[in-house]
């Protein structure tokens, strides 16, 4: 059995199937990282023992998570990130900063999950499915849907303008298609049973989908979005007040049209991602250091340049 550090959740990007040898290698790396409440930092520009200052930077300037993109272990380079579990759960349930919640909408390898984050994340995956359907046409392929889901966390991301591969979303989906299927199949079936979509045909290992684009269906999709997103949408689109027979006052988001709801949600998510990516970039430079920060951005820009040429 793999011996891992004392943490509540450990997961990795699932960019490829992981062999036993690779799992043991990752486990060996995790063993040498000391168990801490928030994070451990290697080679930080801040004082190595001043974890309070690092926490302050991550919370006040960043989005509550600290990444060290240059962890060297046995001649290999790893990117290691840490976050408080309550911050992670808030982002998963509410898209408060739409940073880690966006990462968990894509396949990851979970090594340790003491708080049942996998189950909590189902709320996030259902909301991502709803958002993607709202942004999708009446007929689309399964791959198109996963690409839309994947693109949610990149809308407005400043790195996409100069430091990311322009084909990144398609590469993620095509390289991990079966993993996306296993993640989102329960939610597609759930939506199908509610007559929000139906499976029209199958081509190869993927299906084609059609959906109800009526106002009632749009309202149902919006109702499955996180509370913080719906609240921001209500500020822009307005609320209707209803008085029940028991005297209870309820408010309902006004949706003038499916297109209006989709565009409103797109702008809100885009702004969240833009703000979070900017804050995290500044936080990273302060905690990792200018030299490592420039090195990381240079590597990203090199990959982006290759994708554009």
From TrEMBL:
This is Phosphatidate cytidylyltransferase, mitochondrial. Pathway: Phospholipid metabolism; CDP-diacylglycerol biosynthesis; CDP-diacylglycerol from sn-glycerol 3-phosphate: step 3/3; Lipid metabolism. It is a peripheral membrane protein. GO terms for biological process: cardiolipin biosynthetic process; CDP-diacylglycerol biosynthetic process. GO terms for molecular function: phosphatidate cytidylyltransferase activity. The keyword ATP-binding does not apply. InterPro entries: Tam41. It is found in: Mitochondrion inner membrane. Its cofactor is Mg(2+).
């Amino acid at each position: 059995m793999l011996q891992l550090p004392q943490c509540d959740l450990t997961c990795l990007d699932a960019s490829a199937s992981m062999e036993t040898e690779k799992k043991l290698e990752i486990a060996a790396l995790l063993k040498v990282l000391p168990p801490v409440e928030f994070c451990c930092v290697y080679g930080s520009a801040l004082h190595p023992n001043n974890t309070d200052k690092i926490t302050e930077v991550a919370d006040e300037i960043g989005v509550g998570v600290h990444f060290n993109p240059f962890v060297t272990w046995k001649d290999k380079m790893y990117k290691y990130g840490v976050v408080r579990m309550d911050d992670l759960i808030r982002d998963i349930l509410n898209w408060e900063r739409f940073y880690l919640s966006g990462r968990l909408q894509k396949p990851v390898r979970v090594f340790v999950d003491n708080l049942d984050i996998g189950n909590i994340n189902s709320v996030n995956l259902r909301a991502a499915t709803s958002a993607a359907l709202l942004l999708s046409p009446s007929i689309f392929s399964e791959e198109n849907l996963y690409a839309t889901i994947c693109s949610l966390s990149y809308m407005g991301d400043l790195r996409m303008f100069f430091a990311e591969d322009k084909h990144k979303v398609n590469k993620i989906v095509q390289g991990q298609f079966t993993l996306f299927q296993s993640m989102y199949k329960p939610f597609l079936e759930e939506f199908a049973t509610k007559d929000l979509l139906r499976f029209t045909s199958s081509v190869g290992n993927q299906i084609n989908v059609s959906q109800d684009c009526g106002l009632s269906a749009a309202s149902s999709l919006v109702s499955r979005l996180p509370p913080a997103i719906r609240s921001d949408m209500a500020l822009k689109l307005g609320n209707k007040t209803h008085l029940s027979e028991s005297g209870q006052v309820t408010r309902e988001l006004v949706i003038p049209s499916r297109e209006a709801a989709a565009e409103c949600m797109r702008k809100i998510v885009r702004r969240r991602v833009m703000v979070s990516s900017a804050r995290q970039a500044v936080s990273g430079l302060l905690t990792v250091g200018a030299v490592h920060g420039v090195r990381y951005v240079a590597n990203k820009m090199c990959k982006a340049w290759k994708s554009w040429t």
